[in-house]
């Protein structure tokens, strides 16, 4: 019974550390080895099989996370500002013609002075106020862009919930992004949380043969997947679609 119990304990630990690259796979393999030895020595099959199942899930998850993190790191790049040099236009020289003298004719003497009309004052057109400039789009830092790419990879590969995705981005054992960058990523990632909850529920059903209520508890647990109650309800409703 000792090896079977050890396989179960190590399998649970492997399941908890499954999201840690490489380390989760090592612990998962250890759980599988202990479970196989326990079965060969005729110890408790239930404990050994559960330990093997948890170790297998942890190993697969850790390998997938390692691949996803490597892809995210390779794709991260820092945008360099492009300087634009404006060419100044050369002023053109305008040729001015010298004014020509105008000959004036002598006015003939008149018997009575002629009244001239008073000049009419004209108003200059009012200058139009310049249209306000459109606000410039805010710059997004390189850290925010990298956090968003990592969030997209975790959502598409591991189908994480919004809360668990935030934990993974800020974890000291995970991506170690700042809280601001992680919040920007989870707010702007293109993810269908209902679809993620359904995919996670199907994994629990296929890999561990859990009941719908057991899956619901795992989906909403603060120590599990951290989906919302509505997202868990959607997953359970469409579990057998």
From TrEMBL:
It comes from the Bacteria. Residues 95-114 are annotated as: Disordered. Coiled coil: none annotated. Pfam families: Lipoprotein_Ltp (PF07553). The keyword Transport does not apply. The chain crosses the membrane at residues 6-39, 46-73. Keywords: Membrane, Transmembrane, Transmembrane helix. Signal peptide: none annotated. The keyword RNA-binding does not apply. Residues 143-189, 192-239 form the Putative host cell surface-exposed lipoprotein Ltp-like HTH region domain. InterPro entries: Ltp-like_HTH (IPR011434), WH-like_DNA-bd_sf (IPR036388). This is Putative host cell surface-exposed lipoprotein Ltp-like HTH region domain-containing protein.
